[in-house]
Amino acid sequence: MTRDGSAERDDRPVGDGPWWVGVGPIGAVVLIVVGIVGEAWVVFRWPGLPDEPDTAYYGVSRVLAIGLVLAGTALLGRLRTRAGKGPEGEEGGEG
Q1: What is the CA radius of gyration of the chain?
Q2: What angle in degrees, to the nearest 10, is found between the helix axes of 24-43 and 53-83?
């Protein structure tokens, strides 16, 4: 409560996003590696697979796709920040 007796409002979001929102570029690379290892696990039918391999394909493909999307958006964000700077590192490009 504040001095005047009213309750403060907290405008921060409360867990509204998916689990992968804050992983960043390092987490994206980890997800890609985990997805590739998972795909190899399913293709070579190593022990520990579920009875129905289609669910395993689907699960590891989702992890791989999320990792690729996160890595792509991190790369695009980095390229945009580089493109926004001029030759001397000034904002706005040329001029």
Answers
A1: 22
A2: 150
